[in-house]
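Trying the structure run again after the queue cleared.
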Amino acid sequence: MQELSGRAALVTGASSGLGRAAAIRLAAADARVALLARSAADLTGVQEIIARGGGTALALPADLADPATIDAAVLRAVREFGRVDILVNAAGTDVPGAVENLTVADWDRVMAVNLRAPFLLSRAVFPHMRAAGGGTIINVSSVAGLRGWANATAYCAAKFALTGFTQALAAEGRPHRIRVCVLYPGSMATSWGEWDADARATPDDRPGKAAEESLPPEQVADLIAWIAAAPPGLVLPQATITPLLEQGWP
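Done. Tokens:
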């Protein structure tokens, strides 16, 4: 597959879950991929997988709650690849629990990773995409960005806000051929942990935790690669992706 030959991508949450699957899929399509996540060891493992497949990857350990780390990572990716054509904001975190038990630090961390990091990364890559004549930014939300549920107030608030940010950024990017879209995955067959992609997308008060009711992250990664390779004039503002057993929700 050569549909992304010559292009460079930056993927957050690339050490595991959907971010990992997206990075591997984009590299298989011949994109050069910068990998962002906190764990240097896990990123090295993903980098080695991509290299064995003949791809090119750059491991960039980064704390997405730290704006300085984000700016440094983007600058390193641009120096290495000369451009950033694709940004996939796949990292996420949650602090579940009743609202009265959430601390301000809990709230701020969920917002920092799920909302502020996509803003900072988009702000950093936007001038490079504009100068190159276009690009694609994909923000990974969740069905939690379409409907709220108990014990996930911070997470739902961040994911709802990500939709508004995406829509506004898409309006800014349209004159410059920068496509911006938001994805709402349902429950995925991944481990849930800080900086992992969205594995908790099924509310705790409804069924859907079983593996047979979960999406393989590779299927969502295929959609991400398709969007990245689509003609510049094709606009896909949002997409909801759920297993068949979840159809009809929300």
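The mean pLDDT is 87. Worth checking whether this holds up in the mutant runs.
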